[in-house]
Write a structure and sequence with these properties.
Blueprint (H helix, E strand, L loop, with lengths): L2 H20 L4 H14 L5 H5 L5 H18 L2 H13 L3 H16 L4 H18 L5 H14 L8 H12 L11 H23 L5 H5 L5 H7 L6 E6 L10 H4 L1 H5 L2 E9 L4 E6 L11 E5 L2 H11 L1 E4 L15 E8 L10 H4 L1 H5 L1 E8 L2 E3 L13 E7 H6 L7 E4 L2 H6 L7 H16 L1 H4 L3 H14 L6 H7 L2 H19 L2 H13 L4 H18 L2 H19 L4 H12 L9 H9 L4 H26 L3
Antiparallel strand pairs: 1-4, 1-5, 2-3, 2-4, 6-9, 6-10, 7-8, 7-9
Helix pairs in contact: 1-2, 2-24, 4-7, 4-22, 5-7, 6-7, 6-8, 7-8, 7-29, 8-10, 8-29, 9-27, 9-28, 10-30, 20-22, 24-29, 25-26, 25-27, 26-27, 26-28, 26-30, 27-28, 28-30
Length: 617
């Protein structure tokens, strides 16, 4: 071990841990400072320092943020979460056990990173629907994905690494389910411990920030203006007098007091549905779907006269709903200096000048939606307008006349693209299948995930490229990528090798059980700070050597190395899943320490007690 670089590395390492613990500086900035310090002292080369940003695990994490975001934005997560909620209801305890069970089962066959990417948006939607803080479920999700990796041979890379080492040295290796018994024992203890620890330490976490991120429900906004029972979905029939006519020619508002909000028709060339605002010159055709605002009496009259089909009863969430893909809603507040004051809605020309419809007015605590075109505009009126998102955005520039409440761009980001949900599901299923059988088909997981992320963007499962970038948890990405330089430094200076060798060698005199404990502790400690795969590669030959010198079977020591490399929960940097849920759960560095350290110790105790029962010395 080279003393000077090693001492400097230890000093930087300890300073980094202190900075993480006190949480005064963002975790990604701390990681970058750590990387910069290692570079400045020449402990790592620029190539090694930046290698983390091209590391396949980091790239997979980045792409999976986009895939998971698409699952959320298409509403697929909400759909799946509703079905799961039928099993658990809104009980926090039932949801906890459901999340732990489903996650660990999936993680037994899929990588823990892939498992978290698949389930994170679904569980976030479940938490929102059940009105439970995501902080109660995000850490269980990450930890259960690591626990699930202990169930099967393919559950996590360290399992395969120690299996390969045994085979390379003439032993039979592990069977597919040889890990299951030990994994199950650790899971049961981990389940109980995590339930207790999460209730003790996570109950006080505030929902304020989480609520700030949820956005407004546009359907609820309609309900707020008492319009939810006044919007109807209609379709033009074959012999309708509306065919070939325009709203201006039909004069529907004056005749029936009805406002046509939007029109949808099928584009045969593109094979898609076109959604647009009804304008004065819009020409109606057979099969067009219209959304109309008016009373039931007037709508029935319109249906009879123009041979229209009326869908559902009223506009409800699961029936004839507005979907807001291309058209949206926004509130505007009339300025005291507006020239529109004392004009009627019709004279103000909202439809002609701004391409939006005024649906209702909120004034002095009451909502007005009757005879809207003839309503006089007052200072301080709050109006609900409906139109194309781009047209609503343009209204933000006219600050003299009105103030847009909220940000239309943000409102648009919250709109679920549920017509893309089947496509997103197909991409997700294909991605998971290719990752499960990666070795058999020869396609690296990083390739699969990158292609899946690109397909989500290119096929419209994500609203825009800008949206895709916003979905990425950059703090987590930078944190993991930058801290990989410390992993390299610990290895290159000989620190990790020195710790492993000295600890295991010093315990040989106390028998195989003491060495087993030593292998587990060293592996667990190293995996907390460097990748579990690198740790398994480092510890495997040491464990083999110790077993050979003791004259006992190396199998239990190899199993201990594999289990310890997976059961790491103490820090957000310990595993990619830990980092992935950090932002979603609004966790701090110390949240992981409080919950993860006791859990990691408890599972270690169980593992070293159980392993010899399945694999005797």
């Amino acid at each position: 071990m080279n003393n000077t670089p090693a001492v400097l590395t230890i000093i930087i390492f300890l300073a980094t841990i202190v900075a993480f613990v006190f949480s005064k500086i963002r975790s990604d900035i701390v990681a970058l400072c750590c990387m910069a310090s290692l570079l400045a002292f020449g402990i790592v080369t620029p190539k090694d320092a930046l290698a983390g940003f091209s590391n396949s695990s980091v790239v997979i994490m980045l792409a999976l943020f986009i895939v998971g975001g698409a699952v959320f934005q298409t509403g697929l997560a909400k759909t799946v979460s509703r079905k799961l909620l039928r099993m658990a209801g809104t009980s926090e305890t039932k949801l906890f056990f459901l999340v732990m069970g489903v996650t660990s089962f999936v993680a037994a066959f899929v990588s823990n990173t892939g498992t978290v990417a698949l389930l994170l948006p679904i569980i976030l939607a479940m938490a929102k629907s059940a009105k439970i803080s995501p902080s109660k479920l995000m850490m269980p999700l990450a930890f259960a994905s690591s626990m699930g990796g202990m169930f099967t041979l393919i559950g996590t890379p360290p399992n395969l690494i120690v299996d390969g080492y045994l085979r390379d040295h003439g032993l039979g290796g592990f069977g597919f389910f040889d890990f299951t018994g030990i994994g199950a024992a650790c899971f049961v203890v981990g389940l109980v411990m995590l339930y207790i620890l999460s209730r003790v330490f996570m109950n006080k976490k505030s929902r304020q920030k989480e609520n700030d991120d949820e956005g407004r429900d546009l359907l609820a906004l309609l309900n707020e203006y008492e319009l939810d029972q006044l919007i109807f979905k209609l379709q033009i029939g074959d012999n309708s007098p509306m065919v070939g006519k325009t709203p201006q020619e039909l004069d529907l508002h004056r005749r029936f007091g009805i406002t046509l909000l939007e029109e949808r028709h099928h584009n045969k060339l593109l094979g898609s549905v076109v959604q647009q605002t009804v304008r004065a010159n819009t020409v109606f055709d057979v099969g067009d779907v219209l959304y109309a605002l008016g009373t039931r009496e007037h709508i029935n009259e319109l249906v009879q006269i123009f041979n229209l089909t009326l869908f559902a009863e009223e506009m409800r969430e699961d029936h004839a709903k507005l979907d807001f893909y291309d058209l949206g809603l926004s509130e505007i507040l009339i300025s005291p200096e507006s020239k529109l004051i004392n004009q009627t809605i019709e004279d103000a020309g909202f439809r002609q000048r701004n391409n939006v419809n005024v649906l209702a007015i909120k004034r002095a605590g009451r909502c007005i939606s009757d005879e809207m075109q003839q309503q006089t505009i007052h200072s301080g009126d709050m109006m609900l307008v409906h139109g194309a998102w781009n047209d609503i955005k343009k209204m933000k520039t006219n600050l003299r006349e009105w103030i847009i409440i909220g940000d239309p761009a943000e409102e648009l980001e919250n709109v679920a693209l549920d017509h893309k949900a089947p496509l997103a599901a197909g991409i997700m299923i294909a991605m998971v299948a290719l990752m499960v059988f990666a070795d058999q088909i020869g396609i690296p997981p990083v390739t699969t995930v990158i292609v899946a992320g690109l397909l989500m963007v290119l096929l419209g499962c994500v609203r825009s490229v800008d949206t895709a970038y916003k979905m990425i948890g950059w703090e987590s990405i930078v944190l993991i990528a930058a801290m990989m330089s410390m992993s390299t430094a610990l290895s290159s200076t000989g620190i990790s090798d020195f710790i492993a060798t000295e600890v295991v060698t010093g315990l040989k005199a106390h028998g195989p059980w003491a060495v087993l404990v030593g292998v587990y502790v060293v592996t667990s400690l190293l995996s907390t700070f460097i990748s579990n795969s690198a740790t398994a590669i480092l510890v495997a030959p040491i464990a083999w050597s110790a077993a050979t010198q003791l004259g006992v079977s190396p199998t239990p020591f190899m199993m201990a190395a594999a289990i310890a490399a997976s059961a790491v929960f103490a820090l957000p940097i310990s595993t990619p899943p830990n980092a992935m849920v950090m932002n979603a759960g609004h966790y701090t560095f110390m949240d992981y320490v409080k919950v993860g350290v006791p859990l990691q110790i408890a599972m270690g105790i169980v593992a070293v007690l159980v392993i010899p029962l399945f694999f005797p010395f």
